[in-house]
Design brief:
The protein is α+β, with helices and mostly antiparallel strands. The chain has a domain of 65 residues: Nucleoid-associated protein YbaB-like domain (Ybab, Chain: A, 2-Layer Sandwich), CATH 3.30.1310. The chain is built from two helices and three strands; from the N terminus they run αβββα. Strands 1-2-3 form a three-stranded antiparallel sheet. Strand 1 and strand 2 form a beta hairpin. Helix 1 runs antiparallel to helix 2.
Amino acid sequence: MRDLMGMMKQAKELQERMQQMQSELDSIEVEGASGGGLVSVRTTAKGETKAVRIDPSLLKAEEGEILEDLLVAALADARAKAERVMQEKMSSLTGGLPIPPGLKLF
């Protein structure tokens, strides 16, 4: 029975740390870029877009398709960086326990 109580306490502590990490991920920002920095996107580690910066040289009618592609690439770059931040936070939270790829804990 004591082991069960200990496990329940650990689960509660893990849940509290997960909630704290969720709040922290809202405040961590990453920046993705493409086109050698002509387009950049700033997002939270949870993927909420905060800002987009576009070099004025791309604001020409004939550059529209290039700009669209660069925006998609910058968002993908930011998402990849945000995922790395989340993995690092999760690893520190779980004490290095292996979490199966693709398992969404939040």
